[in-house]
Recover the amino acids of this structure.
């Protein structure tokens, strides 16, 4: 069964450094998402991406965050200048073109900011 | 905020059916019910979704009440590997490209030997 893959599984970065999290969505999917989950808290929506542009973003997704689909397969989340509070699990998801089709998630990247 | 309420935790004996309830009393006609689970800190795993009819797949069954104000996820023969946090999420359709999922705290299901 096709799946969403994320790399790396764990990223340790110094505060203030830039970090790029990578995702390979399911190949025929059209919608792409990033969510995060701070330890012990709810899963939170960050951003959705369709047709090469952001379709929706949350208040969390400020100017320090950006997303890109640099080629036909990868979907990336960049944090420009990381803060301690960016430490979290980051999940990528993708879904098909039909509205009710479910989102499928990767296993996440654990981001630790020191 | 999430539009659903779920019990914080539940227990189930291995081999028995696990019935996880979800209340979504403010659901509208264009909203689907989705169920996901999260095992430990892995990524959320899609289980099943429905609009108004009962649904079944290889993982579970979804029973939606006639008034659509509540639903029950049924794992017919729970195993230890079904121990996870289960999330019930309501999402509005016909929302164009705005398809975000809003998560609550879910139900922590413990399957006991």
């Amino acid at each position: 069964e096709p799946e969403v893959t994320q790399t790396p599984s764990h990223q340790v970065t110094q505060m203030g450094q830039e970090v790029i999290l990578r995702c390979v969505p399911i190949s025929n999917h059209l919608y792409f998402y990033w969510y995060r989950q701070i330890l012990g808290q709810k899963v939170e929506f960050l951003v959705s991406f369709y047709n090469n542009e952001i379709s929706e973003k949350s208040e969390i997704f400020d100017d320090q965050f950006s997303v890109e689909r640099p080629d036909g397969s990868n979907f990336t989340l960049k944090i420009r200048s990381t803060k301690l509070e960016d430490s979290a699990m980051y999940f990528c998801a993708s879904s098909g073109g039909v509205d009710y089709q479910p989102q499928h998630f990767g296993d996440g990247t654990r981001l630790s900011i020191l | 905020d999430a539009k659903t309420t779920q019990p914080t935790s539940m227990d189930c004996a291995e081999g028995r059916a696990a019935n996880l309830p979800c209340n979504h009393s403010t659901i509208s006609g264009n909203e689907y019910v989705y169920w996901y689970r999260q095992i430990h800190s892995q990524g959320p795993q899609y289980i099943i979704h429905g609009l108004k009819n009962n649904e079944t797949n290889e993982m579970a069954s979804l029973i939606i009440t006639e008034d659509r104000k509540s639903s029950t996820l049924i794992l017919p023969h729970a195993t230890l590997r079904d121990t996870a946090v289960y999330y019930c999420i309501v999402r509005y359709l016909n929302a164009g490209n705005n398809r975000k999922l809003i998560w609550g705290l879910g139900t922590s299901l413990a399957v006991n030997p």
Notes: The CA atoms of residues 38 and 72 of chain A lie 30 Å apart. Chain A has a mean pLDDT of 95.
